[in-house]
Amino acid sequence: MSIAPWRNAIARALHRNRSLVYARYLQLATVRSNGRPANRTVVFRGFLEDTNKLKFITDDRSEKVDQIQQQPWAEVCWYFPSTREQFRISGCLTLVGWDNFDPVLQQSRTTTWQELSDAARIQFAWPHPGKPRRMEEQKTFILPQPDPMQPLANFCLLLLDPVKVDHLELRGEPQNRWLYCYDDQQKEWFIQAINP
Amino acid sequence: MSIAPWRNAIARALHRNRSLVYARYLQLATVRSNGRPANRTVVFRGFLEDTNKLKFITDDRSEKVDQIQQQPWAEVCWYFPSTREQFRISGCLTLVGWDNFDPVLQQSRTTTWQELSDAARIQFAWPHPGKPRRMEEQKTFILPQPDPMQPLANFCLLLLDPVKVDHLELRGEPQNRWLYCYDDQQKEWFIQAINP
């Protein structure tokens, strides 16, 4: 696999925005079973090994897991504040849960778990996300740290395999915008400058 | 109309993040005609008069206009960096173009145009967004400023009428999350604390 041509632009944006911790936060849109969109912030966890797939994590009890199982297509919108540029990345999502038998993906799921902070890991031990909160039971959130080596069963690695990347630079004069499209037959990325 | 209960939380977040110009930027998810999601950054332009509708602007030549005409349901994801909180707002979109005959909405469209900066207004005079860019024709972007009083025909006001607001505070211990749902029969908002 070769590094996709849009990877350079992402690497540059990450570097130039490195002082902002939230430059690694982006918004993931999926589609609900009723055909309406859903949208939430997720954290970019790097690329999967020697692929162009973006890594995220999720709890298999979260609503997005059901949405993805029904409609795996997604679009992330990634805005970089310091450099005033946006990437819109469309592609197909893959969930890697405890029951995924691909050894490479399972290893990556484990490594991703090990790389998390304690604060990130403990959230997977919390009560069911999105369910009514029992305020009198504050203690349900006070838990021993889970094993830092072995992921909890509800921990999922989430992979986005891009097929289209729309890169907009607001700082240009007028502005610059490029569209990268993957041609599945030629196994190649094509780039085009488009109007902003 | 009464001010929805989640409006206070938004007002507080906007105030506490006021030093960041991009705290007014949020991500709007819609659904494409092929059933896949689309996602892009838009700028919050305030609330419509004495309603709880969020105002945005768009060019009627942009792809989202076709998407909205087919599927008006949307979800915006609004992340506030300084206070580390997120609002996910679901609702129905309304496009207000030059041919909308509601006098209140048309007046609001005109006022929104008048409140834009020159840099924002000129973009509506640019060549068709998303079409291949003719690099030799840089001059197609060098144009006289449009009339600051009278909107160009392709300028649209875009309104989001929320029915569900999911507010997550990452800073709490553990974290705090509230769900606001509008009950269409009782014409009232209901609030519930939910697990983060």
From TrEMBL, chains A, B:
Q: Name one GO molecular function term.
A: FMN binding
Which Gene3D superfamilies does the UniProt entry name for this protein? Electron Transport, Fmn-binding Protein, Chain A (2.30.110.10)
InterPro entries referenced in this protein's UniProt entry, alphabetically:
Pyridox_Oxase_Alr4036_FMN-bd (IPR024624), Pyridox_Oxase_FMN-dep_Alr4036 (IPR024015), Split_barrel_FMN-bd (IPR012349)
Pfam families in the record: Pyridox_oxase_2
Q: Domain Pyridoxamine 5'-phosphate oxidase Alr4036 family FMN-binding, which positions?
A: 4-96
Q: Which PANTHER family match?
A: AGL049CP, PYRIDOXAMINE 5'-PHOSPHATE OXIDASE ALR4036 FAMILY FMN-BINDING DOMAIN-CONTAINING PROTEIN
Q: What is this protein called?
A: Pyridoxamine 5'-phosphate oxidase-related FMN-binding protein
Q: Which organism is it from?
A: Fischerella thermalis JSC-11
